[in-house]
Amino acid sequence: MDGLPEHDVPDEVETDDWALAVRGSVGQPRTFDAADLADLPMETFSEDFDCEAGWVAEGLSWRGVRVGDLLDHVEPSPESRFALVHAMDGDYACAFPLDRLESAVLALELDGEPLPTVHGGPARLIPTGDGDCWESVKWVAAIELAADRPEDTAREIALGRVE
């Protein structure tokens, strides 16, 4: 269907009552459930997805919510310059400059269907522009804003799976 390789879903990933927490240096911390996200503007875009492991999935069609639209609802503080995107597994987290994260899409669909859990559903972060495949956080559970760049685990964990 989509050309993305399938990987084992960690036991910690529970999608039944999924919700996205947006917290940290924000004026209005908030939790978004699927219905909240459905009320926000959705975008569709297509692009190839390539990975440092050497594979490419061509012409994927992603649909979701621009992260900047989510952040409009939580009032980031003026000192917010970075964010840490956490996966449901509790270990995987990727740091981003806030201005780069705002242009990313929280994908909820892939090729016109709800995003399968095996590919990061119910929500997967898809950074736009140049980046590394390990920045595409699967099973997004939280976005935490901060003034200083937080430490992350994404690159180390992802590249450890490739080697």
From TrEMBL:
Organism per entry: Halolamina salina
Pfam families with a match to the protein in the record: Oxidored_molyb
Residues passing through the membrane, by range: none
Source species taxonomy: Archaea, Methanobacteriati, Methanobacteriota, Stenosarchaea group, Halobacteria
InterPro entries reported for this sequence: OxRdtase_Mopterin-bd_dom, OxRdtase_Mopterin-bd_sf
Protein name according to UniProt: Molybdopterin-dependent oxidoreductase
PANTHER family named in the record: OXIDOREDUCTASE MOLYBDOPTERIN-BINDING DOMAIN-CONTAINING PROTEIN, PROTEIN-METHIONINE-SULFOXIDE REDUCTASE
Domain Oxidoreductase molybdopterin-binding stretches: 8-149
